[in-house]
Amino acid sequence: MIDSIATLDRAEILQRLAGIVRPEQIDTDEQHLKDASVDRFKKYQSVHGIHDAPTPVAIVNAESTEDVAAILAFADDNLVNIVPRTGRTGTEGGLETSVVDTIVLDCSRMDAVLKIDPENMQVTVQAGVPLQRLEDELRLQGLTTGHSPQSKPLAQYGGLVATRSIGQFSTLYGAIEDMVVGLEAVFPGGKVRRIKAVPRRSAGPDIRHVVIGNEGALCVITEVTVKLFRYQPENNEFHGALVDDMRTGIAILREVITNGFHPSVVRLYSPEDANQHFSHFSKDKCVVVFVAEGPAGIVRATSEEIQRVLAQHPHERVDPALIEAWFDNLNWGQDKIDAEKAVMLRDGQLGYTTEVSADWSAVGDVYDAVMRRIREEYPYAGDLTMLGGHSSHSYQTGTNMYFVYDYRIDCSPEEEIEKYHIPLNAIIVEEALRHGGSMVHHHGVGKYRTPWVEEEHGSAFAIMQGLKAQFDPKGIMNKGTIFPEPGAIQPAAADPDTTFGRATSGRTGA
User: Fold this and answer.
1) Strand 143-144 and strand 229-230: pairing?
2) Is-contact 72 61, C-beta < 8 A?
3) pTM of the entire structure?
């Protein structure tokens, strides 16, 4: 917890807010405020009604860019911490309130689709536009954004851009940074800045990337223009295969991608993770999944290449209909979140994921090292009910690895995060960095990966610090997110001990 440096007390902040926006835009419901103090990083504590982060002063529901500008001007003048949010699907603590008397600035009511432009293949939306709603509207016109994260039923555009989101069809359409062509954002002091939408620019550094991925630590995104693509699901072709080990699967993925082909879905599951999703055919083997998408000719050529590469490796073919059925049920809506909560309360069981990325030559070593360390070194490995991983986003130079760990909780809800989630997350991050990869592939840094942010960037961290100093000199924007801040997270998370008592100090690999 970080003490407030605001020049106003809690009552005065509320009084002043009432003069900036309409009363119905200010939410002070006690339960709403508690829920707003955390995100899904602390989902087990939250479902048990435990909220140990500072309770915000209020949730302010902005309805326009002008509202956002007015709130940020007020906050900057009075040193009030701001946590921006839209879809509330964050998983890394980026929405957690680390500072006493924080204002949570919610842009979900800014939900207008401003312009669909089929000629120039782009669409402009406000920050609170739900991705699912936009996709449903676009598909009626034979168009798509190509963006489909698992949180698609709940995610909104401000959060997608702020966390540098990626979707399940990224190998074909790209990640959010490949899709954004222009945007509007509001910086501390209420400064509104627009970056125009053009096909490409070469007028200095690409300043879109000051905003994309900033996680509310620099500014608040209010409007976004993204690319559009043709939507041609009738051409989709599905491919699946069983292989004996992860390195064979990685080799298959690498060959398809580096030969210049871009299936929309490119995945590899470890046997443990595969058994969660494909138990009806996985046979305790690794599962490779491809979906070829787009114009018929491109789909045909991509499918031929997938089949050619698979033929070079020992494998067992999977019925495409089984892959298609899985493909039709990829996303997590509120129904699945509610079901997960019920399991947490009823059974005391929980599942998390930590994702990283690495070069083709290193990702197999990262996977092996993580699995070995957790199985051999983690003292509560016996509580794990599943430990596995999958690759789901591939590139010319490498791929990601999504580690998945489920566990049976043998402690109080207050102790869960430090006994299980924090050390498991830390081992995965350490091994990614030790092998030259990135500690985070998507979802953002939040607050709980800040212990490694300097190691992640190395000498380039000075550039990051320069951005913070330039755009948020008073430090009012989402303190403790991306940029490490003493007190933002508990000591066990700020300096996780993955030696488990075998050494006297915290992080290995630092």
Assistant:
1) antiparallel
2) no
3) 0.93
